[in-house]
Amino acid sequence: MRTVFCCLFAICLAVQAQGPRHGWWVTEPVRWLQTNVREIDATIDAKAFVADAARMNANVLHYNMGGISANYHPQVPFHFASRQLAPGNDLFGDILREAHARKIRVVGRFDFSKTRKEVYDAHPEWFFVKQDGSPVVYNGLHSTCINAGYYREHVFKILDEALTRYDVDGLFFNMFGNQERDYSGVYVGHCHCDACKRRWAADKGKPFPAEPTPEYRAWISSASREVGRKIGELIAAKRPQAGYFNYMEEFTDGIMSESNTAVSRPLPLWPYASSDNVNRAVNSQPGKASVNLCMQFVDYAWRFATVPANEIALRLWQNIAHGGALAFAINSTFDQQDRQAVETARPIFAFAARNEALYARQQSAARVILLSQGDMQNYRGLFRLLAEQHIPFSVSTNLNWIGQRDVDLVIAGRATPELQKVTQAGIPLLVASSSMPPGAGARPVKRWDRAQGYIRVRDKARFPSLDLTSIVMLDGPFLELDSAPGSALTFIPPSMFGPPEYIHADMRDTNSPAMVEFAAGKAVWLPWDLGALYYRHSLPPYAGLFGDLVDRLLARKRQVTTDAHALVEVSLMKQGGRQLLHVINLAGHSQTGYFPPPAFTAISFDVEGSFKSARAMRGGGVLKLERLGGRTRFTLPKLDDYELIVLE
After folding, report:
1. How far apart are the C-alpha atoms of 36 and 603, rounded to whole Å?
2. What's the pLDDT tens digit per position in 365-380?
3. Is 274 found in the same domain as 154?
């Protein structure tokens, strides 16, 4: 096995050196159905099961292959078939054959994070060891360690056999690497096995940490990526046509993510979950597929209880509106005890299948880029401001796109040294952060962790949306700067707020700027977290101030203007010579509920570009156009939950 693996390793290095692989996962429209079948489901009828997937209009079936429990009979030791799989039966092989006969691709699922006690008894050195020396056991399964022999050696024997035996279209790996908490959320800490200690000593030359420090977490993450890279190389060598998927971004062919819920997750809910995940993935690593799984269940303890039907629909429409796979996940078989999720997803899959040519090779046409960095509330608030003002935007975690695409404006919620690359490239920049960006040239006086004051609007001409507002609430981090007379926005420090007779009696204005312009006026810095304030409070002055700044920084008019409701999301994509305007109705979302959205009628759009035709694919038919000054105007007669307008 060692010789075979070394040869495969050499072959795979050549494959990896060629860069991202553009296989079926990026060249074809993808309707991905994940079925997390249980060990007890190994008695299903493969033909009937695949027929159900075909009726769903799925063209990719994500199905359990091996790891904890195999749906075939392995020959490699310490890899076990399901206890319910009859001798001689090859369920996975049958699923693969039936699926391929229907032109459905199959992605095999593996989970190597846990295995049976008999493996632990034979090789305890392969397993996760808690600080007290005991193993991590969950429902009778023992957790393995990413640094030990199971992951580092034995896994490759299992995969070599599986890839030799089955002509799969891809492999997916669940729960990859060491986890500090189990499925019940119980903290188990970090692994103290001998393999971890040896590797740590060799890499770090210092005592093994008693607690999982940031340095340790970075180190154990790099261990997972190292094993993940080798697995990817093996797949590329054994099955070059097969995609490689897990929740790592490096070395894989797809960026996997989930839109999911959890009962303990802090409120408010994030209704843009799928848009956020997919937009970020396709624009941060455009050479890879985005597969954002819409999870049907509420939380781990209630795998058969589904989230609201309209939440399922919203997630799925957002997936394809931003260029990702239409990806849906269920637990067990199609015989669901709560069928709401499946029956909600079914017509969406059918629509995507009928119009599949429109859902392949989409790319963002947006010329505004939001950097996914910094405080989550600040980022999400900026995301909401863009979405609610119908400004098409791409999300990116990096600046690799500089010089590769046409960009009108970059928006950042964290000030980092690399932002200097943006201004050096001559791209307008808006930074909303209590940390100073490079080049701002201001002199800090004091950092307020929580400034409970105001922002004074000094120059109303700069902010036409604030004609009724002279002060804007400030509650959060603020970097007070040296006085700069003439600033358009200035800082009002905290003052008395009680009793009523004393309310703000000591309020005083300062010349400390709350907005700094630099880079010859092409960059604006707000030394406060505008996005976080909007995320928490949704005050109209924040939105007005933001919109006015965007319009002032944009050299060109917004790509899309519309009178649509703020909870109508638009996504502008390009596909060859045409543009695709996706319109999604979020107005049914309220607090923790997702209800059928009210229908909107007669929504007007003004889109950059002179188009000859516009078709509303779900209900509007051919739309009447008006072309003026290099822009195209039209009216969408009605919007229910989603519409796709094709502009050619």
Report:
1. 41
2. 999 999 998 899 999 9
3. yes
Paired residues of 616 in beta bridges: 621, 645
Output phi, psi for 509, to 5 deg. Answer: -85, 150
Residue type, 210: A
pTM above 0.70, yes or no: yes
| Residue 277, helix vs strand vs coil | helix
The tokens describing 186, both together, are 């119980």
Q: What is the pLDDT of residue 22?
A: 82
The 10s digit of each residue's pLDDT in 59-87 is: 999 999 999 999 999 999 999 999 999 99
How does 501-523 read in b/e, with b if 16+ C-beta sit within 10 Å? eeeeeebeebebbbbbbbbeebb
Provide DSSP, 94-117.
HHHHHHHHTT-EEEEEEE-SEE-H
Mean per-residue pLDDT over the chain, rounded: 95
Tokens of 588: 């049914």
Residues 426 and 455 occupy one common structural domain: yes
**Segment 544-553 mean pLDDT:** 98
What confidence tier does 169 reach under pLDDT thresholds 50, 70, 90? very high
**232/348 same-domain check:** yes
Write the CATH number for 452.
3.40.50.880
Cα→Cα distances 432→278, 314, 428, 544, Å: 24, 29, 14, 15
Residue 5 near residue 156, CB atoms below 8 Å: yes
Query: Would you call 581 exposed, middle or buried from its count of C-beta atoms within 10 A (0-12, 13-18, 19+)?
Result: buried
CATH number for position 49 = 3.20.20.80
Shared-domain flag, residues 284 and 417: no
How is residue 59 written in tokens?
A: 């063209």
* Count of CB atoms situated within 10 Å of the CB of 593: 11
Check: CB of residue 578 under 8 Å from CB of residue 646. Answer: yes
Which region, left, alpha or beta, applies to residue 231 given φ > 0 means left and ψ of -120 to 50 means alpha? alpha
Residues 515 and 585 in one domain: no
Q: Which domain holds residue 49?
A: 2-359
Cα 87-88-93 angle, rounded to 5 deg: 125
Q: What is the largest CA-CA distance in the chain?
A: 86
Residues 448 and 310 in one domain: no
Whether 450 and 467 map to the same domain: the answer is yes
307: which DSSP letter? P
- pLDDT at residue 281 tops 80: yes
Q: Which of 553, 569, 603 is the last residue of a domain?
A: 553
pLDDT one-digit tens code per residue, 445-491: 999 999 999 999 999 999 999 999 999 999 999 999 999 989 999 99
142, 232: one domain:
yes
- Domains in the chain, number: 3
Q: Which residue, of 510, 532, 553, is where some domain finishes?
A: 553
The CATH number linked to 582 is 2.60.40.1180
